[in-house]
Write a structure and sequence with these properties.
Layout (H helix, E strand, L loop, with lengths): L2 E3 L10 E6 L2 E6 L2 E10 L2 E8 L4 E8 L6 H16 L8 E4 L10 E6 L3 E2 H6 L6 H20 L2 E2 L8 E3 L5 E3 L6 E2 L19 H4 L8 H16 L9 H12 L13 H9 L8 H4 L5 H10 L10 H5 L30 H14 L10
Antiparallel strand pairs: 1-2, 2-3, 4-5, 5-6, 6-8, 7-8, 9-11, 10-13, 11-12
Catalytic activity: L-seryl-[protein] + ATP = O-phospho-L-seryl-[protein] + ADP + H(+); L-threonyl-[protein] + ATP = O-phospho-L-threonyl-[protein] + ADP + H(+)
GO molecular function: ATP binding; MAP kinase activity
Pfam families: Pkinase
């Protein structure tokens, strides 16, 4: 349980109170009460809480010393900017961002809608998953992804841990710190993206240009993990990851590696021992044949031949479940470009301005 504490200097800050939870000090708005820890990751500590003004349960994420690392600061700014603009039932809602008492803040507190668990925990649990569970999860993931892609957003870090689930099996995509808008170009295309096990071949091969198909590959890896209750490509490092993929998909023809723009990378693929691969129906013998067919179309080595999100939603596996009229595209494509070399003071000011979107009454009152 959370313990209310007094600040070290003995003085309360206006509109704030203090809790300790998971060995972490939370300095939060007085309208919120913490209830229990939810999770801890590289980018923050998350606790469940209650908005006492609305009686609504929420998730409160503390990002500690956000400016200690430029990557963390940029991730936080990107998450703030994108979630302010995104509205879809299969994407997490950022409900509030707490305003610090002044611009010299070190920590950031984000308030999200509260979900019960994530897909990673469900897959790892002994809870049985029916064919309908699997179908419903994939349907919702694709619906949310179709909306994101219509807004020019590549998520770039889809994995079971970034898919939040409610008790009624509603799914919402979260964690947009690595997301980019596909109209951006240049340096972001070559930086580290996507947890390795869910990383598309074109990223493993350091291709300079990639698109929405990287997210489709990640969906395929997640789909396989739901079916088999374990990761399909649990690589230990980049080259091992490629070998695992080839061992399942089989050796690639010359026509299937033309997309690789790096001669050394193309040569490496050709040096791998020949393998016929393994048919996915052998890996997942209990799966519906239409599920296997869709999975095969997602896990295609050549991104130009991989199924699109729209095509996947129209696949027979989801027959009768997807209604495009109930899933309209984003009204305005998002074109978000951040200068990766911004000064800390600029990032700080931009985060402050994002906070003010959630605190309009404070715009004229803040120092």
């Amino acid at each position: 349980m959370a313990a209310a504490v007094q600040p070290q200097n003995g003085d309360g800050l206006r509109g704030k109170h203090f809790y300790t939870m998971s060995q972490t000090l939370f300095e939060i708005d007085i309208k919120y009460v913490l209830t229990k820890p939810v999770g801890r990751g590289a980018y923050g500590v998350v606790c469940s809480g209650l908005n006492r003004e609305t009686n609504e349960k929420v998730a409160i994420k503390k990002i500690h010393k956000v400016f200690q690392n430029r990557i963390d600061a940029l991730r936080t700014l990107r998450e703030l900017q994108l979630l302010r603009l995104i509205r879809h039932e299969n994407v997490i809602v950022l409900k509030d961002v707490m305003l610090p008492v002044n611009r010299s803040f070190k920590d950031v507190y984000l308030v999200y809608e509260l979900m019960d668990t994530d897909l990673h925990h469900i897959i790892k649990s002994p809870q049985p998953l029916s064919a309908d569970h699997c179908k419903y999860f994939i349907l919702q993931l694709l619906r949310g992804l179709k909306y994101l892609h219509s807004a020019n957003i590549l998520h770039r870090d889809l994995k079971p841990g970034n898919l939040l689930i409610n008790a009624n099996c509603e799914l919402k995509i979260c964690d947009f710190g690595l997301a980019r808008t596909s109209r951006s170009n240049g340096q972001f295309m070559t930086e580290y993206v996507v947890t390795r096990w869910y990383r598309a071949p074109e990223l493993l091969l350091c291709c300079d240009n990639y698109g929405t198909s990287i997210d489709v590959w990640s969906v395929g890896c997640i789909f396989a993990e739901i079916l088999g209750r374990k990761p399909i490509f649990p690589g230990t490092e980049c080259l091992n990851q490629l070998k695992l993929i080839i061992n399942v998909l089989g050796s690639q023809q010359d026509a299937d590696i033309e997309f690789i723009d790096n001669p050394k990378a193309r040569k490496y693929i050709k040096t791998l021992p020949y393998t016929r691969g393994v048919h996915l129906s052998r890996l997942y013998p209990q799966a519906d044949p239409s599920a296997i067919d869709l999975l095969q179309k997602m896990l295609v080595f050549d991104p130009t031949k991989r199924i699109s999100v729209t095509e996947a939603l129209q696949h027979p596996y989801l027959a009768g479940l997807y209604d495009p009229n109930q899933n309209p595209p984003a009204q305005v494509p998002i074109d978000l470009e951040l200068d990766e070399n911004m000064e800390e003071s600029t990032i700080r000011e931009m985060i402050w301005q994002e906070m003010l979107h959630y605190q309009p009454h404070a715009i004229s009152a803040t120092p």
